[in-house]
Amino acid sequence: MKPLFLSTTTTTRPFSSSSLTVPFSRVVDTSSASSWSSAIADLSRSGHHSEALLAFLSLRRLSSQPSPTPSSLLPALSSAASLPSLPFGRQLHLLSLRLGYSPADPFISSSLINLYSKTQHPADAHAAFLESPVRNAVLYTALVSGLVRNANPLKALAVFKQLISNLGTSEIDPAAIVSAISACARVSGANVVGGVHGLLVKLGMEAETVVGNTLVDAYAKSGEVGNGRKVFDEMPERDEVSWNSMVAVYAQGGKPVEAVEVYMEMVGRESRRSTAVALSAVMHACAKGGAVQVGRCVHNQVIRMALEDNVYVGTSVVDMYCKCGRVDAAWKAFGRMKERNIKTWSAMVAGYGMHGRGREALDVFKQMIEAGVRPNYITFISVLDACSHSGLLEDGRRWFKAMKQDYDIDPGVEHYGCMVDLLGRAGCLDESYGLIKEMRLEPDSMIWGSLLAACRVHKNIELGEISARQALKLDPKNCGFYVSLSNIYADFGRWKDVERMRVLIKTRGIMKPPGYSLVELKGKSHMFMVGDRRHPQHEEIYGYLDKLRVRMQELGYVPDTGSVLHDVEQEEKETILRVHSEKLAVAFAIMSTVPGSPILVIKNLRVCGDCHTAIKMIAKLEGREIVVRDSHRFHHFKDGVCSCGDYW
DNA sequence: GTAGGGTTAG
User: Fold this and answer.
1) Contacts of A461 (CB under 8 A, 6+ apart)
2) Rounded distance in angstroms from the CA atom of residue A519 to the C1' atom of nucleotide B3
3) Residue A250 contacts residue A222 (beta carbons within 8 Å)
4) Where does the DYW domain lie (predicted)?
5) Which nucleotide is closest to A313, CA to C1'?
6) How long is the CA A217 to C1' B4 vector, in angstroms?
7) pLDDT in tens, A115-141
8) Which chain A residues in 416-435 sit with Cβ < 7 A of strand B?
9) Count of domains for chain A
């Protein structure tokens, strides 16, 4: 009966970036079952899941104990679920079946539901639920959250309703309500979150911090940021997660100013600790809103707190600079990082890619492979996207083939989308069409849209009609498809068809989502919509644009009214073009900054053809580098040309 | 057996 000294020193946890010292060492009496199981439970509870599993295995091997009991099996199973590790979990499942603990023991059953949900085996999770002779609230809750995790929120809500009808509302506790709220957050429809909110108020759970946290996120996910903020403001107590969620909500909504405000309130008035999570979230907000000045301040804070080496924070810094048009600053930050994971590398590849610097993107990608990091599904999207933005036809073909052959990754719609775009751009329309036809997956509307756009550039009316028909079948409300087809007809002088498209757009009530452009000035974001006159300096902006237009016309500028949808006269179309949001933003930025300094404009939609031509000229006339981020990529306008090579 | 199920971020 030799006691075993079980000590775990420095070890690296799988799926975690930092190596850490496990604060665990104790004497385990291997002859005592309770000492054995409490050691495993301690490890599992403190989050040292691989160590818990190792302890379970090694102690089983060393021990004279006949067979494990639920008190050691259970924490091991819960660690297997947390990692998550399907092989370990299955082994433990089989063991508990053999020993008769499963399916009889509801504690084991709930852990099994959790395990199979986390390893994306929802059918097995459901089976574990059905096999259990006991159906208590914990089992229901495990199933509800598991279904949410596996992208089935509707079924999750149905299971939650079963809970209520079978067990009554008295069985509902905060954990149950939290999983129900997170299901609601992912179901579209009016007031879904509000329904469960009402229920939990009736049950007197609104003061629970976790419940409030989940509600904040749920309202935000359903587009009701205001309601989320209200819940946040009324919470009696807020923890770290509450604050981080509120920052994240604004980040996801692309509101860097509000995100920073909440962050400042957290570290200022509330004098809470700033954390890596909070800083990544704020950085994410800056990336989304193109707020490079604020982003730089946040970056300074990251440096001050010595958090640059944190791989998550470092990656969000890289991503922020890329998305704010400063890909060289991103590269510098990338170079300083001591540790890089797959997301870090992919962010850098994507960063170069969206700036049209495909060669550099591929170089980084090759360095990544040399560094021994295995590319995944996402990485290949970045790689192929980079090829398509730079027209690297041969590289694109090569890596598209290699992803399946060398890395055994089946191409998804995103990869096909990049290839269709790349081939189409290069004028290989038949090959592009052929690729769509040989896809095993259902092509989405974006893929057909890419081919449609290529058909316009390379003037192929037959294939254009085919593509448009398919695209519109999948997404009949997307006005871009109507416009592209109409443009093709216009290029061929088929004015009757152009008119037919115009009528179609009108009768089907197709609306273009409102376009807006953002410019950051002294840390403040200025937003412009088409024909916006809300800006205090709008008189000056319009006056300046008028003067610019005269100079542009001297250079041969002719308005391209093709992308104006409205049912109006030619003259009026030109007026609309004149006040497109990106033109207003560019004019405002030039007026407000020192001559010669670069300009960044963030646009929510794709930049229109006329604006693209106009901004090229403005860049030349004003001797400025104008960088525009549209919904698709970056455009660097300089000396009258654009980095996209006029294909976007 | 404070045994199992619950929220945020990258």
Assistant:
1) A455, A488, A489, A492, A494
2) 56
3) no
4) 556-648
5) B10
6) 26
7) 999 999 999 999 999 999 999 999 999
8) none
9) 2
Cβ partners under 8 Å of residue A308, min gap 6: A302, A314, A317, A333, A336, A337
Q: How far is the CA of A302 from the C1' of B2 (A)?
A: 38
Peptide bond into A84 cis (omega under 30): yes
CA A224 – CA A149 distance, rounded (Å): 22
- The residue behind tokens 């049209």 is A356
A561 occurs within a structural domain: yes
Whether the beta carbon of A107 falls within 7 A of nucleic chain B: the reply is yes
Q: How far is the CA of A341 from the C1' of B6 (A)?
A: 29
Give the domain-ending residue among A48, A67, A100: A100
The β-bridge partners of A28 are A4
Strand partners, A438: none
Query: CA neighbours within 13 Å on the CB side: how many for A236?
Result: 6
Dihedral (CA of A248, A252, A253, A258) sign: positive
Joined together, the tokens standing for residue A38 give 């409490």
User: What DSSP string describes A571-630?
Assistant: HHHHHHHHT-HHHHHHHHHHHHS-TT--EEEEESSPPPHHHHHHHHHHHHHHT--EEEE-
Does A490 fall in a domain? no
CA–CA distance, A22 with A323 (Å, rounded to integer): 38
Structural domain harbouring A597: 516-642
Distance (Å) from CA A584 to C1' B9? 35
Beta-carbon contacts of A562 under 8 Å, excluding residues fewer than 6 positions away, are: A483, A486, A487, A490, A609, A610
List the alpha helices (DSSP H) in A439-569: 445-457, 461-474, 479-491, 495-507, 538-554
Alpha helices, DSSP H only, in A11-84?
33-45, 49-62, 70-82
User: Which of these three, A100, A117, A149, is where a domain ends?
Assistant: A100
What letter would DSSP give residue A562? G
Find and give the residue nearest to B1, measured CA to C1'. Answer: A71
A232 touches strand B (CB under 7 A): no
Q: How many other CB atoms are there within 10 angstroms of residue A467's CB atom? A: 32
Q: What are the distances in angstroms from CA A7 to CA A24, A32, A43, A77?
A: 6, 18, 11, 21
**Angstrom distance, A79 CA to B4 C1':** 12
- In DSSP notation, A88-125 reads HHHHHHHHHHHTT-TTT-HHHHHHHHHHHHHTT-HHHH
Q: Which amino acid is at A520?
A: E
Q: Which nucleotide is nearest to A283 (CA to C1')?
A: B10
Whole-Å CA distances, A553 to A538, A615, A634: 22, 13, 26
Q: What percentage of chain A's residues is helix, strand, coil (to nearest 5)?
A: 65, 5, 30
pLDDT per position as a tens digit, A139-194:
999 999 999 999 999 999 999 999 999 999 999 999 999 999 999 999 988 889 99
Q: How far is A71 from A76, CA to CA, in rounded Å?
A: 9
Rounded-to-integer distance, Cα A648 and Cα A198, Å = 48
Residues 507-566 of A with CB under 7 A from strand B: none
Residues 327-356 of A with CB under 7 A from strand B: 343
Q: Give a yes or no: residue A269 inside a domain.
A: no
> What is the per-residue pLDDT across A579-632, written as a single tens digit (0 to 9) for each?
788 888 999 999 999 998 889 999 988 888 888 888 998 999 899 999 999 988
In a domain, A442, yes or no: no
Which residues, 6+ apart, have CB-to-CB distance to A642 below 8 Å? Answer: A612, A615, A616, A635, A636
**What residues does A635 pair with on adjacent strands?**
A628
Strand B and A401 CB separated by under 7 Å: no
